[in-house]
Amino acid sequence: MLVKKKAGCLLAGMMLFPMISYASEPVEPIKPVTNVNLDEVELGKKLYFDPRLSKSGFISCNSCHNLSMGGTDNLKTSIGHNWQQGPINSPTVLNSSLNLAQFWDGRAADLKEQAGGPIANPKEMAFTHMLAVDVLKSIPEYASEFKRVFGSDQIDIDNVTQAIAEFEKTLVTPNSRFDQWLLGDQQAITSYEHEGYQIFKTSGCVACHNGEALGGNSFQKMGLVQPYKTSNSAEGLAGVTGKDADRFKFKVPTLRNVELTYPYFHDGEAETLQEAVDLMAKLQLGRTFSTDENAKVVAFLRTLTGDQPSFVLPQLPPSTSKTPRPEPFDN
Amino acid sequence: MLVKKKAGCLLAGMMLFPMISYASEPVEPIKPVTNVNLDEVELGKKLYFDPRLSKSGFISCNSCHNLSMGGTDNLKTSIGHNWQQGPINSPTVLNSSLNLAQFWDGRAADLKEQAGGPIANPKEMAFTHMLAVDVLKSIPEYASEFKRVFGSDQIDIDNVTQAIAEFEKTLVTPNSRFDQWLLGDQQAITSYEHEGYQIFKTSGCVACHNGEALGGNSFQKMGLVQPYKTSNSAEGLAGVTGKDADRFKFKVPTLRNVELTYPYFHDGEAETLQEAVDLMAKLQLGRTFSTDENAKVVAFLRTLTGDQPSFVLPQLPPSTSKTPRPEPFDN
Question: What are the alphabetically sorted keywords of the record (chains A, B) (predicted)?
Fold first, then answer.
């Protein structure tokens, strides 16, 4: 069992090896969050946990991007309003601020645009932006907090999604053992895990899974060398660009905290890391990892779990007699 | 706006007026929790938030007893597995350790017995105790935590519900403004709120809503003076005792944090406190409150909101390749 170095030692390490140990690596350490509006973050945290942004009053952002479970629901595809089966695996919200775009097909430019999607999606939260805003307006504590945060009596979906996105920016996970290694702590990962990293680099995984998030920064075809067989009907980027060449191109998912974000792929069909690594090697790289290689890569991937978001469960202000009531059932 | 006294002042107040100010009152202050097993509490907190105790992997204790929302789901009746409509309003988990029994009909003797109910209820979490235990056994971090907490390699539903119940014992809400008043702080409630308390006492509400939790300590017939009209088919205590005299007898709900625990009654039909107070006066006391009386009683009830549970959102240990996977959909 490796013991994490204390922050003081880490800082000392950083000063001794400034940008040396990882300057030549294709992966960069996650940077702790800075430069967020803390008032927006606190408001956004409440909204993230508030199921009153859904028609049923039962589904919140945290239902499918559960911050107790790596920012996912750990289901193949999600459960939406009226127990509808979602079309695609819910990607993790952790480190999602590092993505070049949001959703598997990149149809939202940023976190703010993304946040509005599920609220109004009839298969997810099944509400409308106007009704969600009406709920918030009817709750005096929200009204006063919006006013304090945004300096206006107006509450609109723009402010709502701005606050949620600002909270989501704080959901980065620095300080993984691998990042400690990148920052110069040679003992932070084992030689076995290091061998896994070498295989990860030399076999080509790193071609797509690179940068701060080990992914999230490009779209790639699922099934590059061998076609991927799936019953999932998602077509990926082509649905956004209309280009046939973009069929089955999906945003490369981050590998940060990947041991927590199972099951894998846009269809959630790979249940374990072992299975996901095996299939990725075949489909994308045209190679077959030996059992030993696979195990080493998986061991490396498990070093990518960083500090999970840590905050006090938010308390939500109560509805009033003016608050539109949730409608969970059609009867 | 009233400012809460600091703990130091409160303690001083308690010493100056030991048991004097509320000795003659039918309501007692909520006592802060003591005498819990903190290791069990920490384990139970994880289990409380873990949706893997449900068949779908989507529903946890916190889904219907949401600790961001007064320990309830704020729905008339809850949403269960496959979006089934629950038969009855989910009572708050806050201060539930003070109840003489659990569930509206008292069919569980205590919190531990209660905790096993929803897990195996096909309309709620739709799992079995054996499958839930299998899930936990397959997760090494849980296995080692159970061993550390209970000193045995065995994980069983007895330990699971013991830990959940121990966590729930911590969910008391001391320090409401009304309790500050009971403890001698004359300024903690307004004279208007105090008038509401007097009406509450003199009109007979306090006959059932008394003690530390203002309820939870007896079963009473819903519709004592006037019959209650509802389409809800729950029969209350009679379902437990088999006695016809117990039909429509329900456990008197606590009024602690009642401004957060809407909607009201076992069928959730009263949306607002105003409506609930009006109907209770008519049905149980045979009287009609004036608008002024109603408003004062409601103002008093709003002084019963105590300190909400405050803790860091727990992180759940990840499943492994051996963990049985959730089955949210039948296909």
Answer: Electron transport, Heme, Iron, Metal-binding, Oxidoreductase, Periplasm, Peroxidase, Signal, Transport
Last residue of a domain, one of A144, A169, A194: A169
Q: Are residues A67 and B321, on separate chains, in Cβ contact within 8 Å? A: no
> Phi then psi for B201, rounded to 5 degrees?
-75, -50
pLDDT at B5: 41
CATH code for position A129? 1.10.760.10
Could you read off the pLDDT of A50-85 as tens digits, one per residue?
999 999 999 999 999 999 999 999 999 999 999 999
pLDDT score recorded for residue B21: 57
The reply to whether B322 falls in a domain is no
A258-283: average pLDDT = 98
Q: Is B295 on the interface with A (CB under 8 A)?
A: no
* Closest partner CB to A314 (pick from B50, B68, B79): B68
Residue whose pair of structure tokens reads 């076992």 in the numeric block: B266
Q: Which domain holds residue A54?
A: 38-169
- What would the DSSP string read from start to end of B200-259? HHHTTGGGTS-BTTTSSS-EEESSSSSPPP-S----BTHHHH--GGGTTEEEPPP-TTTT
Shortest Cα distance, chain A CAs vs residue B125, angstroms: 13
Q: Does A232 touch chain B (CB under 8 A)?
A: no
Same domain for B133 and B226: no
What residue has token string 């030692």?
A9
Q: Active-site residue among B40, B124, B168, B293?
A: B124
Stretch A81-95: mean pLDDT = 97
Name the token pair of A58.
């039962």
In a domain, A2, yes or no: no
Distances (CA, A) of B62 to A41, B24, B67, B184: 23, 37, 7, 35
Say if the Cβ atoms of B311 and A308 lie within 8 Å.
no
CA-CA distance, B182 to B176, in Å (whole number)?
Answer: 10
Shortest CA distance from A257: residue in chain B = B318
Contacts of A197 (CB under 8 A, 6+ apart): A178, A189, A300
- Are B270 and B264 a contacting pair, CB within 8 Å? yes
CA distances to B60, B111, B119, B136, B287 from B161, rounded to whole Å, are: 13, 8, 10, 13, 43
Look at chain A and report how many structural domains it folds into: 2
Per DSSP, what are the bridge partners of residue B244? none
Give the B window 301-320 contacts with A, CB below 8 Å.
308-316, 318-319
Note the pLDDT tens digit of each residue in A171-213: 999 999 999 999 999 999 999 999 999 999 999 999 999 999 9
The ipTM value here is: 0.93
Domain boundary among A169, A193, A215: A169
Give the residue ranges of chain B where pLDDT is below 70: 1-21, 331
Residue A188 and residue A282 in one domain: yes
- In degrees rounded to 5, what are phi and psi of residue A117? -65, -65
Check: CB of residue A216 under 8 Å from CB of residue A95: yes
Q: What values do phi and psi take at A195, rounded to 5?
A: -60, -40
Contact at CB, B49 and A58, closer than 8 angstroms? no
How far A15 CA sits from the closest chain B CA (Å)? 32
Sequence-separated (6 or more) residues with CB below 8 Å from residue B46: B142, B145, B314, B315, B316, B317
